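Thread title: Can someone regenerate the structure for this chain?

I was given the following input by a collaborator and told the matching structure tokens would be attached. They weren't. Posting the sequence so someone can regenerate them.
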Amino acid sequence: MRVTINGVLNLLNEIDLNKILAIQINKYKGRKIEQKYRKLLQEQVKNTPIIFPKEIPDISFIEQMLEMKKTIWEYKNKKADEIQNILIELIYKIIEKTEGEV
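Best answer:
Regenerated them for you:
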């Protein structure tokens, strides 16, 4: 986890922050150490244009879905709805950003 976070932090320091739309955390379990690094990332993007959507949880449903070679959009259940809503929020932000650039 630390290596991944350090990579993201280095990236934030090296490139134009306007080139980053969002930081999406996945495989999130909400453990104490994950919460620590999530908070660290949130602090780093606090006064930037970068959005920080809700984390995609680490749930076995996702592994089963991948094993069956399905997408999240092919499911209609509570777990799928939760992840779909996170992704829809991100998609809307991408659309908003790109519409402003066209």
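The two ends are 37 Å apart (CA to CA).
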